[in-house]
Structure formats: C-alpha cells, structure tokens
Amino acid sequence: MTEPGGEEVGAAKARLIMELRGEGITDTRVLSALERVPRERFVPDAFREHAWDNTSLPIRQGQTISQPYVVAFMTQALMVNDRQRVLEIGTGSGYQTAVLSQLCRRVYTIERYRSLQKEAESLFNDLKLKNITARVGDGHKGWLEQAPFDRIIVTAAPAVLPDVLAAQLGEEGIMIVPVGRDGGEQHILRVTRKGGELRSETLLPVRFVPLVAGIAKEG
C-alpha cells in the first residue's frame, strides 16, 4: 500500500484539526499536541493512509487506537498542565500517551499486553519523548508507588468506577474514565477529588474495549 507523502499528511492533518474545532475541541494546547504527534507512526502499516481520519483503527491484540475526537475530548476534559503528573491506564498503541506527554510534566502508563508495551516504548524512544515511564501491569491496581497523581486517564472501560484508581487521585485531582459494561451503555465520566470527596459528572456516550484485570498471557 502506498504510504501518504508529506503534503498529503499535512493536508489530512489540517482537515482533522478543523473538524475537531467544529466538534467543540477549543483548547489550543490540545489541538497543538495532536498536530505535533505523528499519528501515522502509531497505526499498523495496513491502515497508515487512514491515520488522520477521524476514526478509531484496529491495532494488535484485538485493541484499537481511539478516534482522534475521543482522544481530544478526553484530553481536553482532563484539564492537564505542564506541572502535573498523569497516570494512564491502557497504553495500547501509545498515541494517547504521546499526546499527554506534550502537555504534562510526566506520564506514567500501564499496559497489560507486553507486546504492545514494548512497541509503544520503542516508539516513544524513536520520537524522543523523554517524560514517559511505561510498564507492564494490571491497570486495575494503578501505580501505587507513584501515587498520588494530579490526573488519571483510563482508556478502556471498567464496568463500574474503579475505587483503587480513585484512591490514587490527589486532592484537586481529575480522573477521566469511560464506565459501563461491554456491549452495554458506556459514558465518559469526569471524577474530581475535592476536600477528600469524589464528585462525578457524565460527559459523553462512548464505546471502549473493556478494562480487563491482570497481565495478559500471550502466545
């Protein structure tokens, strides 16, 4: 398959950014981060020509790279700044991680598939993204050794709000998480910790792969 050239990528990227603006993504820092991260590097070769389409795409292990609108929406809702430490549950392709790395002080990211974690970490190194710490682990457990976090983002859907992750959220912290059963209704929630209490608001109906406990066994 012919790989798109620089001019084609630039035009596709510009169209996507305009589309995201039209869909309510107004945070210029988020839009700039999406522009800077080469999404074509995070999709399988067979789908490279669609890298800048506003659609999710399949990756290895039955997972997906999220639709750019959903990445932009969740990132904007996270309200992250360059002083903050972010925990990401579900590295996947590494695309959301790379976007976050443009906006925060450090990203800690956990992936249950060792093969995906290795591929993503190799890409982070190639792209010289120095503020990402990645490991294989059980996302349900979070990263207690590095807690509390200013922000937490979950890129797979637990059936209910995960208490263990919420407990690792610092005061004034925000967690963005899609919640709902696989095959049923799912919504992105924004959970905020204030005065030691958690407040939750429902933001957007979505469809995510389920958040599965444990480290995956791969053949």
Q: What report would you give on this structure?
A:
Helix content is 28%, strand content 25%. It has 219 residues and is an alpha/beta fold. The protein has a domain at 56-205: Vaccinia Virus protein VP39 (Rossmann fold).
Give short descriptive properties of this protein.
two-stranded antiparallel ribbon; single chain; Rossmann fold; alpha/beta; 28% helix; 9 strands
Chain-wise SSE layout:
Layout: H1 6-22, H2 28-36, E1 57-58, E2 64-65, H3 68-78, E3 85-89, H4 95-101, E4 106-111, H5 114-126, E5 132-136, E6 149-154, H6 163-166, E7 169-179, E8 187-194, E9 197-205
Parallel strand pairs: 3-4, 3-6, 4-5, 6-7
Antiparallel strand pairs: 1-2, 7-8, 8-9
How many beta-strand segments? 9
> What's the CATH H-level superfamily name of the domain at 56-205?
Vaccinia Virus protein VP39
Instruction: Give the uncertain stretches in residue-range form.
Output: none
The fraction of residues assigned to DSSP E strands is 15-25%
